[in-house]
Amino acid sequence: MNKSLIVLIVIIISSTIMYFISGIPQPKILTCTKDAFICPDGSLVRRVEPKCEFAACPKPVKEEPTATPSAVLSPANTIAR
Fold this sequence. Notes:
The chain is an alpha+beta fold. The chain is 26% helix and 17% strand.
């Protein structure tokens, strides 16, 4: 009888502990959907936490004009047109 009383007390205590542990609110894990937005320049941006809004599109970079050679040197260092 003494053993069964101890087992009953252990069960009651462990049940009480489990009841209170399960009542503690768990932190919410926020995950955003994996869709993407196509920016005007053609790049893609994804959603970012915490509000799951799309990230800002990258600013357009001003491209500097590149010089195109009008003449090419041949192996003999003469100008070929």
